[in-house]
UniProtKB/TrEMBL annotation:
<keyword id="KW-0560">Oxidoreductase</keyword>
<dbReference type="GO" id="GO:0020037">
    <property type="term" value="F:heme binding"/>
</dbReference>
<protein>
    <submittedName>
        <fullName>Cytochrome P450 3634A1</fullName>
    </submittedName>
</protein>
<dbReference type="GO" id="GO:0004497">
    <property type="term" value="F:monooxygenase activity"/>
</dbReference>
<keyword id="KW-0503">Monooxygenase</keyword>
<comment type="similarity">
    <text>Belongs to the cytochrome P450 family.</text>
</comment>
<keyword id="KW-0408">Iron</keyword>
<keyword id="KW-0812">Transmembrane</keyword>
<dbReference type="InterPro" id="IPR036396">
    <property type="entry name" value="Cyt_P450_sf"/>
</dbReference>
<dbReference type="GO" id="GO:0005789">
    <property type="term" value="C:endoplasmic reticulum membrane"/>
</dbReference>
<keyword id="KW-0256">Endoplasmic reticulum</keyword>
<dbReference type="GO" id="GO:0016705">
    <property type="term" value="F:oxidoreductase activity, acting on paired donors, with incorporation or reduction of molecular oxygen"/>
</dbReference>
<dbReference type="GO" id="GO:0005506">
    <property type="term" value="F:iron ion binding"/>
</dbReference>
<keyword id="KW-0479">Metal-binding</keyword>
<keyword id="KW-1133">Transmembrane helix</keyword>
<dbReference type="InterPro" id="IPR001128">
    <property type="entry name" value="Cyt_P450"/>
</dbReference>
<keyword id="KW-0492">Microsome</keyword>
Amino acid sequence: MSKIRDEIITYSTSVKIGLLTILIVLLWKYLMKLFRRDHRLVTFAETLPGPPTIPIIGNGLDFYYGGVHAMKKVMGYTEKYGHIYRLWFGKFLVVGLSKVEDLEDVFMNSKTMGKPEIFRPFQDYWGDGLFTGPMHIWKKNRKRFQPIFGNNIMGLYTPEFNDKIYKVVDMMKTLLNGPEFDAWDYLPYLSFDIITKTSLDVELDWNDKSVLQFHNSVKTGMETSLLKMLRPWLHIKFLRDLLYKKQVEKVQGSMLKFSQQTIQNKLNIIKDDILRRKNIINQDPNEVISLKSFLTTAYEIQEEVNNEKLMHDEIITMITGGTDTTAITNSFFLLAVAIYQDIQSKLYDEMYEVFGDSDRYADHDDVKRLPYLDQVLKETLRRFTLAPVIFRDVEEDCKIGGRLFPAGTALMISIIGVHFDPEYYPNPWKFDPENFSPEAVEKRHKLTFLPFSSGPRNCIGQNYAMLEMKLTLIALLRHFSFHTTMTMDDIKMNMGFLMTSVDGYKMSIKPRNRKPSYL
Ligand code: HEM
């Protein structure tokens, strides 16, 4: 009896082991199919150096710990493997590039202008807007929006910028001679206020829940898109949906709600603007171009292609692009000049030359008369590179730096790799505005400074961002002097989709003694 029972147990154990083996084999085959790599990519990757990989997931664990760790990894790759290296994320081949001559080929080539397949998670949130949209939509819409951000019309927005900036100056007066605070508690709201006013003509109401929800949603969208991109197990739709579907819907919902409310409230104004533009278009095209017509242009596009979602995608993209970007850079700038008091004194001396001790607002022409401010801001954009890496798709086989790249390769342009390359900046970790003296700039290749990327798919808001940041910094530095207990060594850079400071931007302010340092 017991022998029969033993045989039954042995039999059922064998069946279980057999079934488990079949299951494992099937799962393995499924994963192999899912993560099967294109043999042309594999052959090409074998010609490139790169860190060791794990079967199937490739380098997917390299960025597991994110933040400070990711920053070290990316910098480490360039140090160890040079200007070109390969990484695998599941089936996706990603080639890191940081040699300016190679980047020249990438930025100017229409076959490497699009975003790669691995970047697709970002599309969940920003849809077909400029940042993530497919090439055929991007090409048309970029052309439509480009004149709205032309340097020639930026001066028109100075009054609106100043209006918002001086509200924050007043708010910050309550912090005078007080303890340290975090600049991050103020500056994102200023940037958000400015971009919604200038591009949508909307006055933000901070008591309206949807405003805060929109801001938080953008952050969540960025963070989770990055995870979905770099963690190969999240390339499996089933797992991705299981873990993130609800969150994606929530984030999409709050972004859309904000955009829909805006359109709703502005519908009559938009229609009037469209009429006005039609009437004067034959007289002077420049007259009709104003940043406020961003909203009108987005509306016109949706009418032309009968796609309301596209209009919301463009609005959400523009507001996203214009918010934390300038706020982070301004925060780093103020922290750096709080650390380096000599740089801050030199900045104020230059401003004193232009404004004396008057209270008048700065305008577009004043900004042009402050070359040292330009240098310090550019050094901030280098030393605290906002977008550490950006991605491009090799749509068709093409040559980059004399090497043939097969279609399907994802290019990771390492802007930090360029900005911290000792060949271009001899002492890259030092905060040194002299890196942007006219003599130093003249000696370097123009692509050694890439905060806004380059070529036809660069940052459309570059002129706008520079003016907004300068006007903000001028107003703040004319009213306050900035101080901090932080040192340069205390600043730990957190590499997410945007580079931020792990411990924030702690500073205190005192009233500005309105005299230059030499008096
Ligand atoms: C410090 C400020 C800023 C920096 C450093 C910055 C940097 C960048 C970079 C590097 C890109 C290229 C991204 C890529 O290729 O994946 C980009 C794209 C973009 N930026 Fe900015 N940006 C800033 C401010 C702004 C502002 C103020 C706006 C809006 C007014 C804006 C709107 C956009 C848009 C819409 C794109 C997508 C452009 C396209 O693909 O055609 N950015 N930005």
